[in-house]
């Protein structure tokens, strides 16, 4: 009898997430993070704020990412955030967030919609200057933005001076990875 068990694959179609280097740049596919979008419903802003504080979920303002003890969150728009948590303990992140926020917020599972690449190097601005309009030279850790990389709508999070997370559409993970590695080879 054939073994028909499904085996999870990374956004790049691998059994094990890819890490690649180009000069001083390391580009790592990240698959251990659960994602869900969180949007306050009309007139429920204070309920969302209170529930988030109780649950230890930070709600940053425009252009920001905040990391709590478990949950990380970045701003998507007015009263709208993307929430991150470790996949191993929060695989059902949307269900968990719905329990926290109830009818005060709309929660949508996002884990399998996005591919995440962590880009690390001692000097990241030359690489990102080739990719998008995000000014890393003027940014401080915790900055987050939506931008376009190689015609793909992406989110960038400056996690540390030498580390940027790039989230792009999972369906275009190969194209995004190609753009990142090509820019790294060009910059260094």
Count of strand segments: 11
Q: Gyration radius, to the nearest Å? A: 17 Å
**What portion of the residues fall into strands of 2 or more residues?**
35-45%
Q: Label the structural class.
A: alpha+beta
Report the biggest beta sheet as strand number plus sense, adding barrel if it closes.
6 strands, antiparallel
CATH topology of the largest domain: Gyrase A, domain 2
Order of helices and strands: EEEHEEEHHEEHEEEH
Tell me the overall shape: globular
Instruction: Tell me the number of structural domains.
Output: 2
Mean pLDDT: 96
Q: What is the helix fraction of residues, given as a range?
A: 10-25%
The CATH architecture designation of the largest domain is 2-Layer Sandwich
Could you give the order of strands across the largest sheet?
A: 1-2-8-11-10-9
Number of DSSP helical runs: 5
State the low-pLDDT regions, or none: none
């Amino acid at each position: 009898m054939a073994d028909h068990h499904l085996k999870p694959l990374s956004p790049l179609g691998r059994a094990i997430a890819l890490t690649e280097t180009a000069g001083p740049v390391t580009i790592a596919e990240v698959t251990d993070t659960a994602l869900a979008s969180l949007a306050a419903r009309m007139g429920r802003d204070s309920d969302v704020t209170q529930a988030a504080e109780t649950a230890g979920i930070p709600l940053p303002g425009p252009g920001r990412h905040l990391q709590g003890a478990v949950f990380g969150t970045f701003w998507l728009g007015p009263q709208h955030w993307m929430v991150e948590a470790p996949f191993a303990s929060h695989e059902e992140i949307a269900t968990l967030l719905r329990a926290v926020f109830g009818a005060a917020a709309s929660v949508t599972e996002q884990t399998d919609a996005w591919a995440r690449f962590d880009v690390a190097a001692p000097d990241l601005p030359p690489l990102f200057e080739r990719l998008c309009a995000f000014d890393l030279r003027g940014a401080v850790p915790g900055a987050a933005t939506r931008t376009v990389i190689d015609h793909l709508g992406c989110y960038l999070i400056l996690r540390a001076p030498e580390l940027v997370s790039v989230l792009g559409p999972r369906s275009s993970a190969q194209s995004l990875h190609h753009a990142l590695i090509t820019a790294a080879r060009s910059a260094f």
